Amino acid sequence: MRILLVEPNALKAEETCRHMERAGFTVDHVDTGHDALGMLKSYNYDLAVMDICLPDVDGYEVIRVSRVARVPTPVLILSDEKAATAKVKAFSTGADDYVTRPYESMELTARMQAVIRRSKGYSEPTLRAGQLELCLDSREVRVQGRLVHLTGKEYVILELLLLRKGMVLTKDAFLNHLYGGMDEPEMKIIDVFICKLRKKLQAAGGGQLISTVWGQGYVLRDDGAPFTVPATPSGTPVQAS
């Protein structure tokens, strides 16, 4: 899962990034409200973790503007401010959760995962498709109850496909999610990751869950039925394989 951390204090940002990365999150960091808005409008984050006190505009304004712009990214406030009025204002502005410093890293991770699950329509930490199960908390993947060993990149790709189940994801979306615009390899690496992931899931009895949508990308569905994306302008549906 990809996180945007909005924190002006370098030491706090370093500490929080370290906690998040240990928990398996991919983290982008900015230190101003204007940069946060630019990133939120440009990229599809699973969650924004934001301080209230920013050097240009406060966190409340960032949330307000992003909501007006219909940015769907959920927001968790991480702040030193413990006053009830600050929390009430944050929630009324559109924040999804509020955590005060000092925080326990395990609690912060759990709260982040809970917000992300709710935003994707899941009430529990396990994502499912057919015989496949992925636990967001433990990062374990099982097919028919048997553990499937994935590399870090394979896990992130599968997690993204499950969180966006039924949606066609482009190779650009995968690259952006995996590398965040930093030192991105050639796009064909996504085909390699998908190929290896498919083989592991099929070998475990997961079947053909991941389909190729020619000219567009990949999609994960619940069963083995063919998946058809909306028709092209010429009226011809695009078939996934």
TrEMBL record:
Taxonomic superkingdom: Bacteria
Keywords annotated in UniProt: DNA-binding, Phosphoprotein, Transcription, Transcription regulation, Two-component regulatory system
Pfam families found in the cross-reference section: Response_reg, Trans_reg_C
GO MF term set: phosphorelay response regulator activity; transcription cis-regulatory region binding
GO biological process: regulation of DNA-templated transcription
CDD domains, per database record: trans_reg_C (cd00383)
Cited PROSITE patterns: OMPR_PHOB (PS51755), RESPONSE_REGULATORY (PS50110)
Keyword Lyase: no
One Gene Ontology CC term in the entry: protein-DNA complex
Name of the featured protein: Cell cycle response regulator CtrA
Record organism: Komagataeibacter saccharivorans
Gene name as annotated: ctrA
